[in-house]
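FIELD: query
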Amino acid sequence: MPRRSGPVRIGITLGDPAGVGPEVVARSLSDPAVSGAAEFRIIGDAEVWKRACRRLRIAVPPHPFEDLQNVESPVQMGRMEAKCGQASLQYLDRALELWKSGEIDALVTAPLCKEAVNLSGVSFSGHTGYLARALGVDLPVMVLAGGTVRVILVTEHVPLREVPGLISKERIVRMVRIAAADLKEAFGLRRRRIAVCGLNPHAGEGGLLGTEDRDLVAPAVRCLKEEGLDVHGPFPSDGIFPDVYQGKYDAVVCMYHDQGLTPLKMVFRQVSVNCTFGLPFVRTSPAHGTAFDIAGKGKADPHSTMQAICTAADWAGRRRARKRAC
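FIELD: result
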């Protein structure tokens, strides 16, 4: 297949039709700096898209639109419904088809509602796992970025009681390897100084507060250092984030969802981006949910979506340049 030149092509799914996805995408693409960052193809229901633009009193962005026509009746904004969950998953499936046929280089996904998708009869825990299963990827890596802080999650959307059983030396090593490679491409980082948080308070206190950090996390760090990666830890999570904020590290590995996302969003909530590493294509999303409480009211802040789009464009551009150089 000949290598393609020209602008990066990004598919954007609209997410749950009753959530803030359509409006934050519309607002983002009405910004000339964002709209000019790539070629776009919007994937959703055209009537939902047009209604979102009318509510915001903005012109419908002039980008190609994949109209699935899969929302049968007017959507009640802010209401969780199985039909909206089903529609949002169909947008995602269509995006995968477009990538497989070579029509898009990257994907930005607006928020969908996991509960609504499950109500539609599909077992679904999030975009990351769904995309990985569809593409045969056994270990995707969820990375949240805001400012100069990048959080790598060893476990994602799982109950807290299940986290210790999912932590292993092998899992940490594999995920950090993947993250170290994609951090360079996604964010243009030459150096990747990575801190690793412990699972337990005080990183286990040598086994007094739990043995996982001593027996699993520390050996993983040693293994990665032996491979030549600039990896350090395990550190107590309550103490390492000030160093991360100050730029001592380029990324921090966290053992579970809230350990990493709480300190990130306290500082960078409006501009955080969710990236999936380890996939064969670029995927980003805004780092927030459907926000049903404000959906349709014109209050949703588009900056996280704007950042997700620009990150995808930069990342896909660097990936294309690397492939050309090979």
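FIELD: remark
The chain has twelve helices and eleven strands.
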